[in-house]
Amino acid sequence: MIDKVRKPIEGVISILTESFGIEHILARTDLGIFRRVQAKATAFSLVKYFNLAIGKENANIASYAV
Question: What are the structural domain ranges in the chain?
């Protein structure tokens, strides 16, 4: 029973770690994970937009994600 619950959670955490550089998501529910990912995606999009608007190259902000 525990393995059935643990494997999907570890899968989500590994994908978030690879995609956003998030090691410790500090979320207790699936809605919490969704909101954290949504906030990260919004921040990445805004940084990309503002860099494009001011003429800067895209920054590697995944290394700053916490």
Answer: 2-64
